[in-house]
Specification:
Helices cover 19% and strands 20% of the residues. The protein has 75 residues and is of the alpha+beta class. The structure holds iron/sulfur cluster. InterPro entries: Divergent_4Fe-4S_mono-cluster.
Amino acid sequence: MPTRLQSYEAPGITVTFDPTVCTHSAVCLRGLPAVFDVRRKRWIHAEAASADEVAAQVARCPSGALQVVREPQAD
Ligand code: SF4
């Protein structure tokens, strides 16, 4: 099966989502609803919270469907 990895970029952080892994626990939706909202076509708005907040929420994803790549930001 081809991987349909989605990628959502914001300053300092990129969130990736693998829909083939997600178990639909809704942990992300409840934890940070401004960022994770499935009613939107591009459902992850990584810029709607700080990179640290987004990374902390992604770390709570029980399935590992969400991952982050952190990028150092210039001051
Ligand atoms: S927390 Fe992870 S497993 Fe749960 S709905 Fe979000 S992406 Fe899917």
